[in-house]
Hints:
Elements: E1 5-8, H1 18-31, H2 38-45, H3 54-61, H4 67-84, H5 91-101, E2 106-110, H6 114-123, H7 127-130, E3 134-136, H8 148-157, E4 164-168, H9 171-180, E5 183-187, H10 197-202, E6 207-209, H11 215-222
Parallel strand pairs: 1-2, 1-4, 2-3, 4-5, 5-6
Helix pairs in contact: 1-2, 1-4, 5-11
Amino acid sequence: MQFEAILFDCDGVLVDSELITNRVLHGMLNESGWVLSEDDCMRIFIGKTVRSETARIESETGQPLTDAWMAEFYERRNARLRAELVAIEGALDAVQAVHQQLNGKIAVASGADKPKVIMQLDKVGMLPFFGAHVFSGHDLPRTKPWPDVYLAAAASLGIAPRRCLVIEDSVPGLTAGVRAGATVWGYCPQVNAHSTPEQLLQAGATHVFNDMADLPRLLAQANQ
């Protein structure tokens, strides 16, 4: 079966944002009284929204997770991202190539809030390739690991999920793609990967690759 569309996760797949965001979150949680390491913070929150761990945050800090706290987190996070964010190596050229290969049938389906996703894609020069086809789990009834955001992205392109290829780097996101009925490939870079190839395969990935620059070639081979 040929793939007619690609649905990309954003953080860790297109943009190198996860360590930046994690450092901000880690710092604010420690300030609030939850003393944990950066590695533990990444392990707990990777592929999830902050609010999905509200109960644990409130238990560990002894304080409610307020809208004001979240607003400060977003402000600090976005300032750091604007200053430090870069694209995943090879991702911009890959996006441009697969956009041409698939006649523009590509979309972003992220678990992050949409203003962040738009800002990041714009900063690294990818936004024109996706246009209106940028979706956030925050805007849907359920976010990852549920399939809603991938189903919305596929519908926006007019392509059945089973004919879509999803690119993901986290187990919650990969699970969402599988539940949507898409084929999912795991992206697992050789440096700073947050899941192992084995974990991605166990979660349902049919293929794992470690260099985003290889994606156009892999797509062409799959669609022969």
